[in-house]
Known about the structure:
The chain is an alpha/beta fold. It is built from eight helices and 15 strands. Strands 1, 2, 3, 4, 5 and 11 form a six-stranded mixed beta sheet that branches. Helix 1 (15-20) links the parallel strand 1 (5-9) and strand 2. The chain is elongated, with a radius of gyration of 22 Å.
Amino acid sequence: MSATRYTYLGPEGTFTEAALRTLPEAATRELVPMVSVPAALDAVRNGEAAAALVPIENSVEGGVTATLDELASGEPLMIYREVLLPIAFALLVRPGTKLSGIKTVTGHPVAQPQVRNWLRAHLPEAVWESAASNADGARLVQEGRFDAAFAGEFAAATYGLEPLVTEIHDAENAETRFVLVGRPARPAAPTGADKTSVVLWLGDDHPGALLELLQEFAVRGVNLMLIQSRPTGAGIGNYCFAVDAEGHISDRRVGEALMGLKRICPKVRFLGSYPRAGVEVEDVAALRRGTSDGEFMAASDWLARAQDGRA
């Protein structure tokens, strides 16, 4: 395995590359762009790279399905950290292009919902066609296949383009969450401000099936930060659920919730416990009464004494 190589959703000039370069270790790694999320993750699976950075959630559109589906299937991988990146688009064009001359535009499919209102207001007649990434859209503009691309302003110089309009976003404070993914290993020690990600499969479809999953978290005071259904490919109505929960697998409340889910789910895939980006320990909400590690341990001790006749 190449311990010094990180892959990411390319080509050069993507928001994913920008997010990756915020990591301190990126300065000492070989950063290799890949054509797709599956390609970036497969490079980790087959040992060509130590880790991959890929987008997993957008504050406007929710989960990035390509990433969620890849993490739910194939050889298991684990998330080791996350990165939050504010997102604003620039309209990149070849030098000399005017707004009135733009008839075709491109960008990553996730970008379109974030600029839809701006397009309707400023380029109502322009035809949109999706690209593999925002940077790939910029490359296609450079080659003359489209008139303009929505991408990060930082991509303009890489592709010899000009930012005709900058700071384009329909939603203020839009962010994308990226995750650094590697091969499975022991999770890092808890920090007190952590997140645990899992994928859960329902055993059968019956009234209250999803509620049963959620109760495993609720009765132990574990707050959920994301839950998204994804089709399993086994037919209409067959779904798995990608879940992000507050806490670390070593926290008793989280560990016991996962054990409860393992008892009732035919399949549970642990995707990792890792520090929450941009959150300090003092910012984490206080635990509900009865859900701290100390209280779980005290209850366990009480049960042992009761079994011994010492309660």
